[in-house]
Amino acid sequence: MKKIGLIWGDGSSPEIMAQAKRVLDAIQDPVDPFVYTDIAMGGEAVDKYGDPLPQHELDKALAQDSVLLGAIGGPKWEGLPGPQRPEKGLLRLREGMELFANDRPAKIWPQLADASPLKKEITDKGIDFVIVRELIGGAYFGKKETKEVNGELVAVDEMPYSEHEIERIGRIGFETARKRRKKLVMVDKHNVLDTSRLWVKVFDRLKEEYPDVEYSTMFVDNAAMQIVKDPSQFDVIVTENLFGDILSDEASQITGSIGMIPSSSRGKTKNGLYEPIHGSAPDIAGQDKVNPIACILSAALMLRYGLDMEEEAARIEQAVEKVLDQGYRTADIWTEGTTLVGTKEMGDRILENL
Amino acid sequence: MKKIGLIWGDGSSPEIMAQAKRVLDAIQDPVDPFVYTDIAMGGEAVDKYGDPLPQHELDKALAQDSVLLGAIGGPKWEGLPGPQRPEKGLLRLREGMELFANDRPAKIWPQLADASPLKKEITDKGIDFVIVRELIGGAYFGKKETKEVNGELVAVDEMPYSEHEIERIGRIGFETARKRRKKLVMVDKHNVLDTSRLWVKVFDRLKEEYPDVEYSTMFVDNAAMQIVKDPSQFDVIVTENLFGDILSDEASQITGSIGMIPSSSRGKTKNGLYEPIHGSAPDIAGQDKVNPIACILSAALMLRYGLDMEEEAARIEQAVEKVLDQGYRTADIWTEGTTLVGTKEMGDRILENL
Ligand SMILES: CC(C)[C@H](C(=O)O)[C@@H](O)C(=O)O
Ligand SMILES: CC(C)[C@H](C(=O)O)[C@@H](O)C(=O)O
User: Fold this and answer.
1) CA angle A163-A165-A167, nearest 5°?
2) Residues of the binding site of A for Mg(2+)
3) What sign for the dihedral angle of Cα B198, B201, B206, B211?
4) Which bin fits B74, alpha (ψ -120 to 50), beta or left (φ > 0)?
5) Would you state the pLDDT for residue B86?
6) Which of B69, B129, B290, B317 is most buried (CB neighbours < 10 A)?
7) DSSP readout, B154-201?
8) Helix, strand, or coil (residue B223)
9) What is the per-residue pLDDT across B126-172, written as a single tens digit (0 to 9) for each?
10) In terms of CA atoms, which chain A residue is nearest residue B245?
11) What is the average pLDDT across A279-285?
């Protein structure tokens, strides 16, 4: 029995989740079908429970074999105080499930190469790298305080990292590189930050265990340049939480097709969280316009990493490739000469090709 | 009497400084010439004094009307412990001179538009914005500590901001926007950081004083995307130190000609620091190859902001434009059909056009 948690999400997210679920239904073993559990997190949970992730919903997530998420948030919840904002639910889910490693691929789909904002001479060299982002440490989870000092407010965010936190994400970085082109770049700011200097120290120890992986470090400001200048140089980037947030969004942008990018967040157990990297697109909610591919590919990653169903994962990915080859495109990736389809029809086409 | 401090810098920096000084010599008032003082900072100071900014050199800098810097650092000093690294001298100079506002323009030169890594349809919409970066607060100058906790090392960088620090950079942001296209975007991460929430609070107060400026906020991860996706949307970006470091490097990269970009760092007094945003290019030191234009344009900014010599500043900028129109290029900006010149000859050409 394989237990899958479904977080339907906000805005246009339920529409992409519906297509991903159709794909999961189609690919499951009929004699041992998936057992689904709906989990409320984000805006939906705020509306229902006044809390973006009540304990009972986190408990449900913890009881699954894997969790699939669309996307959360939207203008409706913008004015709420910090702890009640949808994003807070996501941060608490990451922490509660102990998902310390977030994989964000940046890859140009040959069928969609034109969509990149970068020049052809750059994209022609190829873009295919992964950012392995530490997800439950650093400034996201450090102590925060705002207090009055000498008659004015002073806010402080602490950015902490401990050796074991760095080591476990470091191992994921090296292991990921080992399975790919064996090149790992650790991005930091060790000319300024103590945490970065600890990252360097731990990685200098780790690299001895992975002599087959070519290892180097790069300053975060330089990395922000190099991703635009020559993304073909990267295979695997490993970095701390906040730098990973910034660089992975930049990296997704240069592919030109954010609606295509899945991601996985994993921890010590097999129970990970799989989600598109794009947002909840509330502006097009309910219009059958949103691209379901990133969510469907997230489901594929879930099968591969969370449920040991490599073959089924590959089948889904191949179906997506075929649909792109056939020229079907949702509005976000549509170009002259291709066939515009809605969310549901994109789901239909992928199902046909399964 | 106008007192100018010259920090000759490391690597190929002395070569660009030499050209900038020739331009300053040519443009000065012969009856009231500039008085120059050489200041050692960075690698040069490490070599001479074992300290990247000894107090006597900082004192010299503080006694000037303005300071011009090339660039510092290089592989020679890479292995040194933190406090002895060249960069530490720069950070201490910024702090010592109280330079809280760093202006980093991102502008496409029409003559060099081809050099951008972005597609023509994006650069055609125009790239002309400024990043106003807070320069002496945040994680750069917060408390840092690495200590043993439960048998392992834990490092913590504090990221502090107080209301008055935010307010003074906020004012520079609004004032800068007012002198331009009147659009200010404050970049933060207020869904995660307490400091960002304090930035929002202070800016919400400030914006009432600048009703003529269109004000909005943007998350730093989104900003990293938007700079690549549609840079024409930006006029002025104001942000905290670390985000400014990352985004301004990304922004300079999309112009495709980092060797052209000057910057200014200013504080409460007129005595500011003016420098190219590029590094010290040690790999081409002594080869008469490095592009002196960013340093010469930094000298122009110094005349404009530090020495009240707007007319002379504009003359220098026009001379640079003319030389580009005439087709002269150093190696970093050379393209088919233009004339390759060395560092010195580029200086000659600019002097001719003054
Ligand atoms: C919503 C936000 C808190 C989150 C983050 O910063 O981690 C998002 O930007 C992401 O990258 O998943
Ligand atoms: C050298 C380094 C400390 C510095 C910084 O991070 O501020 C540099 O990257 C810059 O942007 O001027």
Assistant:
1) 65
2) 221, 245, 249
3) positive
4) left
5) 94
6) B290
7) EEEEEEEEEHHHHHHHHHHHHHHHHTTTSEEEEEE-TTT-HHHHHHHH
8) helix
9) 999 999 999 999 999 999 999 999 999 999 999 999 999 999 999 99
10) A221
11) 96
Beta-strand relationship, B183-188 and B236-239? parallel
Inter-chain touch B146–A197, beta carbons under 8 Å:
yes
Q: Does A77 touch chain B (CB under 8 A)?
A: no
Length of chain A: 354
d(CA B48, CA B52): 9
Separation between Cα atoms, residue B109 and residue B235, nearest integer Å: 16
Q: Distances from the Cα of B61 to the Cαs of A258, B54, B288, in angstroms? A: 48, 11, 28
Reply yes or no on whether the pLDDT at A163 is more than 90. yes
What number of other Cβ atoms are within 10 A of residue B182's Cβ? Answer: 15
Instruction: Kindly write down the DSSP assignment for every residue of B64-121, as one continuous string.
Output: SSEEEE-----GGGTTS-GGGSHHHHHHHHHHHTT--EEEEEEE--GGGGGG-SB-HH
Give the residue ranges of chain B where pLDDT is below 50.
none
| Residue ranges of domains in chain A, CATH in brackets | 1-100+260-354 (3.40.718.10), 117-255 (3.40.718.10)
pLDDT tens, residue by residue, B44-93: 999 999 999 999 999 999 999 999 999 999 999 988 887 889 999 999 99
Shortest CA distance to A122 belongs to which of A256, A239, A18?
A: A256
Buried b / exposed e along A9-30 (16+ C-beta atoms within 10 A) = bbbbbbbbbbbbbbbbeebbee
Report which ligand 2 atom has the smallest distance to the Cα of B248.
11
**Both tokens assigned to A249:** 């969004």
B167 touching chain A per CB within 8 A: no
* A313-349 tens-digit pLDDT: 999 999 999 999 999 999 999 999 999 999 999 999 9
If one residue of A245, A246, A275 were mutated to test the ligand 1 pocket, choosing by the most ligand atoms within 8 A of its CB, it would be A245
Cα A66 to Cα A269: distance, rounded to the nearest angstrom:
10
Ligand 2, atom 3: nearest CA belongs to which residue? Answer: B87
